[in-house]
Amino acid sequence: MADDRWWKDLDAVVAAMLAGGSRILDLGCGDGGLVDRLTELGFDPIGVDPHAPAHPRLVQARVEHATGLGEFDAITATMALHHAELPTVLQSIYGHLRPEGQLFVSEFAWDAYDERAAAWLASHDPSDGDNSITGWQREHCDLHTWATVREALSNCFTPTLEVGRPYLARMLRRCDLEADEHALIDAQLLPALGIWYVAKRD
Q1: 2-11, 21-30, 44-53: least confident range
Q2: Across-strand partners of 199?
Q3: What is the CATH number for 81?
Q4: Which of the four pLDDT bands, split at 50, 70 and 90, describes residue 3?
Q5: Which helix (H) or strand (E) holds 124?
Q6: In three state form, how does the secondary structure of 137-164 look?
Q7: Tens digits of per-residue pLDDT, 171-183?
Q8: Can you give the residue range of the structural domain that contains 57?
Q9: Does residue 4 form part of some domain?
Q10: Domains of the chain: total
Q11: Is residue 132 part of a domain?
Q12: pLDDT given at position 85
């Protein structure tokens, strides 16, 4: 079964903002779950990922090395940019998007993790993992911050939406906790570690 944690609900946003039959490239498609879902929704998607499984709509390659893909009405990138070579990958994204094409990003602001997030995670995580701020920073420090990703995106695209979203519940695979996390984010009692970002190509 496909792991839909990082694109769950984003598929509805894509469906609401694109015309049926739109051609979509899913960057870093993983197991291809979003590609299958977008196909079900009436779109024409292709996924690209160096570790993609054998699938008629998936290409086993990095997007910057993939050839013959053509242009797309939209590109989705879920949890893919924080470890990417941003200049190269964003240049490739730009080249594969039609003018006025839309980019849908689901990412995380790992550096926003604070004492509130650590306490919430510790209270819901039964593992013996290190949920401290120091432990979290040590685990994620080699990844791009959201500020770095956003700045790189702003050099190529015009943002139309940026909204904070739950992340910790999805990380724990606890969908039953997501509404609680979302409510605490809305009340500014937890940082929004998840990010949805939509932009257009000029």
Answers
A1: 2-11
A2: 103, 159
A3: 3.40.50.150
A4: confident
A5: helix 115-124
A6: HHHHCCCCCHHHHHHHHHCCEEEEEEEE
A7: 999 999 999 999 9
A8: 10-112+144-201
A9: no
A10: 1
A11: no
A12: 95
Q: What is the pLDDT of residues 71-104, one digit of tens each?
A: 999 999 999 999 999 999 999 999 999 999 999 9
Q: Which residues, 6+ apart, have CB-to-CB distance to 179 below 8 Å? A: none
Separation in Å, CA 143 to CA 136, 147, 179, 189 = 12, 11, 27, 25
DSSP per position, 8-26:
TTHHHHHHHHS-TT-EEEE
Q: Which residue is associated with the tokens 């990095």?
A: 62
Sheet of 157-165, strands arranged across: 58-59, 44-48, 23-27, 72-78, 97-108, 194-201, 157-165
Instruction: Identify the residue whose tokens are 């080699």.
Output: 142
CB 202 within 8 A of CB 158: yes
Burial class (CB in 10 A: 0-12, 13-18, 19+), 152: middle
Give me 111's structure tokens: 């550096």
Mean pLDDT score of the chain, rounded to an integer?
95
The whole-number average pLDDT for the span 24-28 is 97
Whether residue 160 lies inside any domain: the answer is yes
pLDDT score recorded for residue 89? 96
163 within domain boundaries: yes
| Cα–Cα nearest to 149, from 201, 78, 202 | 78
Angle between the 10-17 and 33-40 helix axes, to the nearest 10 degrees?
40
Mean pLDDT of 125-130: 82
